[in-house]
Design a protein that fits this description.
By secondary structure, this protein is α+β, with helices and mostly antiparallel strands. The protein is built from 7 helices and 7 strands, in the order αβαααβββαβαββα. The protein has one domain: Gcn5-related N-acetyltransferase (GNAT) (Aminopeptidase, 3-Layer(aba) Sandwich). Helices cover 36% and strands 25% of the residues. β2 and β3 form a beta hairpin. α2 packs across α4.
């Protein structure tokens, strides 16, 4: 049975692509991430109200980088210019499950262009075919129908279980689920 290997996962995601690329988040990226998280257009989608100054970003990054059960990536365009971020968190050692998290198109010029959908698709292909994760969860504000639609396009389905209310605006949060076999069949991929 395969076990999660963080270093191997980072190598898989660091490969180059055409339209979309990924690379691990580094300390030099934290000011840009703080800028994205403090943007009024994106801040409303987060589940916490912690102000994201550079000190908070450094604290978060230090903890996240040390956590063996998560990988945090920058989403890059074909010229390797950062567009956003995405993460795989709460990765089960046996790769049975994980959570899609911190998915954000941070650069305003990249929003509403299809690049977020392309990044999500490529990310899921790598998660399911290269890493071998069997089931992926995503959590989204119930009012965020745009994100729900994006997730449904790739095969996620809302689940009856909900997280407690978000501390940002006291709204409910819906869990969505995608199984590897469903994604592979929907995307016409081979294992």
């Amino acid at each position: 049975m395969a076990e999660f290997d963080k270093q191997r996962a980072l190598e898989i995601f660091s490969g180059t692509g055409q339209q979309i690329n990924f690379r691990p988040i580094e300390d030099v990226d934290l000011e840009l991430i703080a800028k994205w998280r403090n943007d009024a257009e994106t801040a409303k989608y987060f589940f916490s109200t912690v102000p994201d100054d550079i000190d908070n970003q450094r604290k978060w990054f230090s903890e996240a980088a040390a956590d063996p059960d998560q990988i945090n990536l920058l989403v890059l365009d074909d010229k390797h210019i950062p567009l956003g971020m995405i993460a795989l968190v709460d990765i089960a050692k046996d790769l049975n499950s994980a959570e899609l998290g911190r998915f954000l198109v941070g650069e305003s010029r990249a929003r509403n262009t299809g690049l977020g959908q392309a990044a999500l698709n490529k990310f899921l292909v790598l998660v399911f075919t290269e890493l071998g994760v069997k089931e992926l969860r995503a959590y989204v504000h119930t009012w965020n129908q745009r994100a729900i639609h994006v997730y449904e396009k790739v095969g996620f389905r809302p689940q009856p279980a909900e997280r407690p209310l978000s501390s940002v605006n006291k709204s409910s949060i819906t869990m969505m689920l995608l199984k590897r076999d469903q994604f592979i069949n929907k995307a016409h991929l081979t294992r």
